[in-house]
Each structure stands twice: as structure tokens, then as C-alpha cells.
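We emphasize that the prediction below concerns an isolated chain of 209 residues; any contacts that depend on oligomerization or on bound cofactors are therefore not represented. The input was used exactly as deposited, without trimming of termini.
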Amino acid sequence: MMPICSHRTNQGFSLVELLVAMVMGLAILGAVLSIFVNQNRTHAIQQEVAYAQQNVRAAMGLMVWDIRNAGHNPDNGDFRAIEEATSTSIRVKADYSNPADGDAGDAEEDITYTVNASDQLTRDDAVLGPEAIVDFVDNLQFSYGFADGDTGIPNEADVDDSNDRDDIRLVIIRLGVRTENPDPDTGQDRVRNLTTRVRVRNMGFQDID
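Result of the prediction step, given as a C-alpha cell string:
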């Protein structure tokens, strides 16, 4: 009987080979983890920016609707369409009652827009009180166009022969909303700005003879 050869050709991995394989595996794992973290951070940044963009558009749409309808007065009631008009706030009135009651004293008829101390844009119903409609407001600015073509801020003295609140025909709104967190790379706020020009249609009727 011939002897059985017990020589083994597969000796397995040496300790050095095992260590090299472990180091390579950790390097690959670290690279994959780094890519995942970067992609996750980029996604979070994009989500915040998209949220800020959505907020600024929604808030602007609400302001535009209220300002455009300022002076809606089917019963010819005795109230001013724009009660206050500064560079940082505006107060508008309209008679939405059905049937019209000749005043702007009901809910949703006397509205003020401004920014509070917490950087929130508020919509203040003179009956129901202020309501925050968007957070993280970076800036809110109003400017005005008058019947004679001039632009600026209404004369606070409200003199009839100057550009006062009754002469407003156009409201320019500039609204900026920042993301909740600053840019992680620069530390600067990321702000989404929107500018809109609103024709105050009901006030233009008084120009018609």
C-alpha cells in the first residue's frame, strides 16, 4: 500500500496579510461613511433651503392677497384702505361682509403685517389678534408708489397736497426668510429673498372721474 501524502498546500493568511486586509477594509468603510455623511448633510441643507423658499413664497402670497384687496368697499363705508404704511409694516382694511356693512371692523377686515421681536412675520387681525405666519424672517421692507408716479414712504403728516396714504397705488414688498441653521461651511445665514409689486386696485377707482 502506498503512503497517503499529508502535505497541505493551503496555509491560510499570515498575520501581516490579515492586518493589511483589515486596514484596507477600514479605509474603504471610512470612505463610504464619509460619503454618506456628506450626502446626508447636503440633503439636510437642501431641505432647509427648500423650506425657507416655500415659506417666503407662502407668506408673500398671503400679503399680496390682503394688500391687493385693500379698500374693497362695496357699501362706500367711511374707512381708509391703508391705515398705516411705513417701511417695516402695513395696515390695510376692506369690507368683506356679505352683505357689506360699510365698515372694516369684522374679523379678517383690518390686517397689519409686521415682524415681531422673535423674527416672525405676523398677520395681526384687529379682532382676533396677531398670528405668526412664518419664522426666521431676515428682513421685511415696504415701499410705495403714488398716483403721481413718485415712490417712497407716505408723508406722515398726511397733507392732502403731498404723497400721503390715500395716494398709494402700488406697494413693493421685499421679504427675506433665512434657514433655521447657518451654512455649516461659512457660518453665514442662508437667506431666500422675494420681491413683489402689488397694485392696490380698489384705490385706483378714485382716480376715475
